Amino acid sequence: MSRKIPIPLSGKLVLLGAGKMGGAMMEGWLAAGIIPSQLIVFDPAPTKEVLTLIKNHSLSHNPDIATLTNVEVILTAVKPQIMDMALESVLLLKSQKPLVISIAAGKTINSFEGHFGTDASIIRTIPNTPAAVGRGITAMAANSNVTEAQSLLASALLSSLGEVVTVDNEDQIDAVTGLSGSGPAYVFYLTECLAKAGEAQGLNAELAMQLARATVEGAGELMRATGTQAATLRENVTSPNGTTHAGLQVLMANGGLAELMEKTVDAATKRSRELAS
Questions:
Q1: Which residues contact 69 (CB under 8 A, 6 or more apart)?
Q2: Domain identity same for 154 and 208
Q3: Taking Cα atoms as reference points, which of 180, 116, 176, 175 lies closest to residue 146?
Q4: 6, part of any domain
Q5: What kind and span of H or E run contains 26?
Q6: CATH number for 132
Q7: Do 150 and 54 share a structural domain?
Q8: Which of 142, 175, 208 is the last residue before a domain boundary?
Q9: Are both 154 and 271 inside the same structural domain?
Q10: For the chain, how are helix, strand and coil distributed in percent, rounded to 5?
Q11: Domain residue limits at 237
Q12: Which of 72, 116, 261, 268 could form a disulfide with 178 if both were Cys (CB 3.0 to 4.6 A apart)?
C-alpha cells in the first residue's frame, strides 16, 4: 500500500538490492510517477515478483555500471553482511556525487563515507518490516553534506514504505532500532501471548489466535484512523472496576508491562550499538 506522492527526482535512481523492501519501494516509486527510465535495479537474483515488475515497466536491470550517467541517488537495500561487497560494485558512480541512502541495519554513516568519501552526502535510515506493505515507519539521519533538497528527496522516496521521521543525530538511530525497528516482533509476540492466554481460558487454539490477531490489528487501525493518543483510547475503554480494569491492574503493576518493555527496548538498543561498532 504505497503512497502516491510526488518525488522530486531529476536524475537516475540506482536501487542496490531488490528484495522484499526493495520491491515494495519500486512499486511505490513507480506508482508515485517516477519515470521507468530513471530507475536502475541491481540485484543478481531478484524474486519472481520483482522480475515481473522489471519486465512490465522495462526497467534497466544489472546494466554495465560504466554506462550510467546522471545518477542522483543510490539507495542500498542489501543485507548488512554483504553491504561492503555490494558497494564495491557501484563505486564507479561516486564521481557523480550521488546522494547515498541506506536502509541496512548496523551500517553507520562513517562506514559509507569510507566507501564514497567524507564529502559524500549520506543518509542512514532504519525502517521496519511493515514497510513491506507500505505501513512501516522509517527514521533517517544525515551527515552534514546532505542538503535540504536532498533530505526532502530522501523523505519522498522513503515514504513509499510508510511514515518517515528525522532524528537529530545518528546516535538516536540505535534507540529507533530498539523501539520501532525491532518493535513489530514485540507486537507479534504479544499476539502469540494473547492467544495462549485465551487458550488457557478454554478457547481452542485457532479461535484464540483469530481473536488475538484481530484485536491487535483493530487496535492499531483505531489509533491510526482516529489519531487519538494511546493513553486516551485506553482510558476510554476502561470502565471503573470492569473487566478491562481488572486486566490492566496486572499489566500496570510494579514490574509489569511498562518495566518489561523498557528493559526490552534497552536490550535491543544496546545490541544495535554493539553491531554498529
A1: 12, 96
A2: no
A3: 116
A4: no
A5: helix 20-31
A6: 3.40.50.720
A7: yes
A8: 175
A9: no
A10: 55, 15, 30
A11: 183-276
A12: 268
Would you say 30 and 86 are in contact if contact means Cβ atoms under 8 Å apart?
A: no
Report d(CA 25, CA 253) in Å as an integer.
42
Assigned domain for 246 exists: yes
Cα separation of 194 and 215, whole Å?
9
Do 148 and 202 sit in the same domain of this protein? no
Rounded CA-CA distance 205/95 in Å is: 58
What are 191's three cell numbers?
499476539
* Strand ranges across the sheet with 12-16: 60-61, 39-42, 12-16, 71-76, 99-102, 121-126, 136-142, 162-166
Q: What is the pTM of this model?
A: 0.89
d(CA 53, CA 41): 11
Final residue of a structural domain among 157, 175, 193: 175
**β-pair partners for 142:** 123
Q: Specify if 1 maps to a domain.
A: no
Rounded Cα–Cα distance for residues 175 and 268 (Å): 8
On whether both 118 and 67 belong to a single domain, the answer is yes
Q: Which of 148, 180, 149 is nearest to 164 (CA)?
A: 180
pLDDT (tens digit, 0 to 9) for every residue of the chain, 277 residues total? 445 567 899 999 999 999 888 888 998 899 888 999 999 999 999 999 999 999 999 999 999 999 999 999 999 999 888 998 999 999 999 999 999 999 988 789 999 999 999 999 999 999 999 988 889 999 999 999 999 999 999 999 999 889 999 998 999 999 999 999 999 999 999 999 999 999 999 999 999 999 999 999 999 999 999 999 999 999 999 999 999 999 999 999 999 999 999 999 999 999 988 888 7
